[in-house]
Amino acid sequence: MDIKLQQVSYAYAQGTPFEKRALFDVNFAIPSHTYQAIIGHTGSGKSTILQHFNALLKPTSGEVHIGDRVVVAGKKAKDLKAVRQKVGIVFQFPEHQLFEETVLKDIMFGPMNFGVPEKEAEIRARELVRLVGLPENVLEKSPFDLSGGQMRRVAIAGVLAIEPEVIVLDEPTAGLDPRGQKEIMDMFYSLHQERGLTTILVTHSMEDAARYADNIVIMHEGKNVLSGTPREIFKDVQTLKELRLEPPRIVRFQHKIEKMMNSSLSKVCLTEEELANEIAGLLRKERAES
Ligand SMILES: Nc1ncnc2c1ncn2[C@@H]1O[C@H](COP(=O)(O)OP(=O)(O)O)[C@@H](O)[C@H]1O
Ligand SMILES: [Mg+2]
């Protein structure tokens, strides 16, 4: 399901003395089945944008296309339930929204709310609890007896249980230890690949954006200022500097090497393997020439 933002502006508390404009003419498109990262400093509008992806917020001007639905500023949009079922959002610190007596009931809540029969919802919960890396015996426990990392996984399972076509992740690994972060990011990546889930990741992590995303959009003060493949984005060192954004560690390392060699490699490398291959290629070339 494609998502498209056209000239989207958004103001909180519009028409009141507290009015706060958060988005200014934002334009970009996310094709089905792609992995999109949205990056920017705190306050740049990332969380405001992502609430437009399932019409939790409606633009104050412009249009949001969600599959074949169009949400237009100033017009009432009916029957958004279908949209909410297709676009699942994992909010920042989603564990704050757990509320049921047991993990099982919590994961089943979403699908049952969308009319999935109880039996089917339970089957999904039992499958998902394993998929997010938890033992099945947590299902009968209270979510509040789990560790923070486990609660995060339960909350994620709850969103996956509605079987969305698009999954939107707002800093999904914030506050987790490095191992938990990698496990969760790898899990979302396999879901993306195996089930063709369109994935939209809001992150501070250039490393994650470089590793997983097909495309990156950079937000700055409520505007989309740069977009492209990770290679294109990390090539544009000057713009990143102006935006005070650090490229990933591997790209910074490449810059160091290029400085030492006083020449540029043929491409921006996104992984250690790529960088090693580029350098090996240079060595072979030098040997052939000497
Ligand atoms: N509920 C709100 N009411 C008023 N202003 C808000 C609200 N939520 C966010 N903002 C403001 O909107 C701007 C964008 O915020 P946000 O989308 O949360 O950015 P990010 O997720 O990139 O940190 C910021 O200036 C923020 O202070
Ligand atoms: Mg945010």
Describe this structure as you would to a colleague.
This protein has a domain at 248-290. It is globular. The chain has a 6-stranded mixed sheet. A 4-stranded antiparallel sheet has the order 2-1-4-5, with no helix packed on it. The protein is α/β, with parallel strands linked by helices and 290 residues long. It is built from 11 helices and 10 strands. The mean pLDDT is 94. The structure holds adenosine-5'-diphosphate (ADP) and magnesium ion (MG). Magnesium ion binds at residues 46-47, 170. The site of adenosine-5'-diphosphate has 11 residues, from β2 and α1.
What topology does this entry show?
Blueprint (H helix, E strand, L loop, with lengths): L2 E10 L7 E11 L4 E5 L6 H5 L10 E6 L2 E4 L8 H6 E4 L12 H11 L4 H14 L16 H13 L5 E5 L7 H18 L2 E6 L2 H7 L2 E6 L2 E6 L1 H6 L1 H6 L6 H13 L10 H18 L1
Parallel strand pairs: 3-8, 3-9, 6-7, 7-8
Antiparallel strand pairs: 1-2, 1-4, 4-5, 9-10
Helix pairs in contact: 3-4, 3-5, 4-5
The structure holds adenosine-5'-diphosphate and magnesium ion.
Magnesium ion binds next to α1.
Keywords summarizing the entry:
10 strands; alpha/beta; 11 helices; six-stranded mixed β-sheet
Number of strands: 10
Q: What is the rounded distance between the termini?
A: 54 Å
Bound small molecules, which ones?
adenosine-5'-diphosphate, magnesium ion
Structural shape: globular
Alpha-carbon Rg, integer: 21 Å
Helix content: 40-55%
- How many alpha or pi helices? 11
**Helix and strand sequence:** EEEHEEHEHHHEHEHEEHHHH
| Biggest sheet statistics | 6 strands, mixed
**Residue-averaged pLDDT:** 94
Q: DSSP strand (E) fraction?
A: 15-25%
**Low-confidence parts:** none
Q: Going across the biggest sheet, name each strand in turn.
A: 6-7-8-3-9-10
SS-based structural class?
alpha/beta
